Amino acid sequence: MNENFTGRPSIDRPWMKYYPEAMRNMEIPECTLREYLEANCRGWDLTAVHYYGTDISWNTLFENVDAVARSLKALGIRENDQIPVFLRSVPEFIYLLLAAEKIGASLLCRDNTLMENVEAVAKSGARVIIAHDFLRQHELEAYLAGSSVEKVVLLDPCHSGNYEKMPPHVFSHFVKCSLSLDSGDHEDMPEYIRKSLDSHYGRSPARGPATMTWDEFLAAGNQHFGQVAASPNINRPLLRAYTSGSTGPSKQVIHSAHTMIGVIHQMNFYASSDDFRTTWLLTILPPALIAVVVSMILMPLSSNRILILDPFCEPEDVDLEMMRYRPNAWPIIPMFIDTVMKNGRLPDDYDMSHLLASGVGCESYNNKQIRNAQKFLNSYNCDVTFTVGYGCSEAGSNVTIPVISRMFSDGNVGIPLPKTVISIFRPGTEEELTYNQQGEICISGPGLMLGYDTPEATAKALWRHKDGRIWLHTGDIGYMAEDGNLHTLTRGKAPRFGGGDLATLPMENLVADANIEGIDDEFFVVVPDEEHPGYFLPYMYVMLEDGYEVADVEMKIRKCLRPHMQPVEIIQLKERPFFHFKTNRLGLQKDIVSKRQAAKGTEEEKYA
């Protein structure tokens, strides 16, 4: 250990040695989101957003924000009101977010079941919601019956695109798009995008006196001549989004303009170029996710990139859209890179060197996955280092960035952002651990949420420690290396009866590093031990190469795992299952519990 270190990462901050002086001394601007975007705009006539054949300039973007703000006021939206928004990542979402800031309101986003969405709207007390025009009639009726909603604004998803509509009685859209941002020639939108759009339209679209089109919404704003802007308050709630529920109960996370800028400002330099305006492709990921809004929409907008919104590209077609747009940056979550590698549709001579950076966040990536992804990129002339990042909704999205000189293996997710402090604490306490000691990952910095929507939940996550800092207790388990790199190991402490902790990533890496022939992919799911409350049991899932069965690999798997890591069962799957773009561990956990209960019931019947 460095002789000048105290042994406490929060004080030593060893990661700061990687940053130049300008970044070590940066300050987070005290301004609104709009002011921040305007300050970073390099020209009002420059393209800010590209959306299915349409280039939207900065000037047009802000004009649309002002128009939407007037329309919101015309519908009676007041300061501190919540506006439920159920939209894909379309330009209108950006207008709504900045318009809400202007009038002092907040957007509420959720992408769960209809019942959960209705519940969120009811809690908000909102009288107006905004959704796409493929909202179903039964969904409309559920919102009207289950909440205080009186008006639903319906947006055609192609409103900002270059397209031609079919006749009104055919619920189908034909869209046109330029194949490159430099070309004025437009060709038909690819069939797979049209198919995705068409798939959302059924025979019973939402209609009736409670609905209004987006054009009618804008027309109402044109007739509003009263006060629009509220007094600026950068700490007022602006974005409320529910966690996906992929790792536990869904919770409403609340952010302000200041907390979002707190993340954006620390990341603006990443994967950019001074030589030309880089392009940033956002495929399918919805703004119901904090990371999408902060790091995938606002961050590229505020750093002189051209943001390409592509919300109707289904996950199985992301490889085709990558080839079509050839972006310089593309948020490649594990689900996406797996799709690109497994689809096999990239031509052998495809050149992927258009990517200036490549890596994954969203969830843990084991050593085999990292090696496979790096090998894949290199085989297509992409020489960038494949990296892994870490963050969470409660921290405003990303909290680490990669240090390319360090290998991205064994859970290494890079170093904390320059104004962010990350350290490891004994779970459930304020006791800070030293380097290479496993404990709970805690975060302090300008991107921390205002809180959840209940004081009780907020108090469990945000603690003011004796050092005076507000710390987010994430529940994730990991350790801090002496060089400042954070290593993540698992979600939550999971002890096994008889001794040992079930940290899923180290378990996966032991198998990954054994290079067992026949294993294409593998991961663990830990399940509560019914016989020993407070303890857990591991189950392993494997995706095997053609011709292999579990019996062919089981002994080799068990040989490389320590005694407490031995899985109760090794289960073969055809492919890794995803839910909300993450490995569906929670769903598999529920399946295991259900099967155990069913087996227990059968056993009891047998002896009855």
Task: From the structure above, extract its key features.
608 residues, alpha/beta, 8-stranded mixed β-sheet, 5-stranded antiparallel β-sheet, 31% helix
Give me a quick take on this structure.
The protein is α/β, with parallel strands linked by helices. Helices cover 31% and strands 23% of the residues. Helix 4 (58-74) packs across helix 9 (214-222).
Helix-strand category? alpha/beta
Number of E-type strands: 31
Which residues sit in consecutive blocks of at least 5 with pLDDT less than 50?
A: 163-187
Overall, the morphology is globular
Mean pLDDT: 91
β-strand percent reads 15-25%
Note the main sheet: 8 strands, mixed
Distance between the termini: 64 Å
The helix count comes to 18
* Helix content bin: 25-40%
Spatial strand arrangement across the major sheet: 10-6-5-3-4-11-12-23
Q: Whole-number radius of gyration?
A: 25 Å
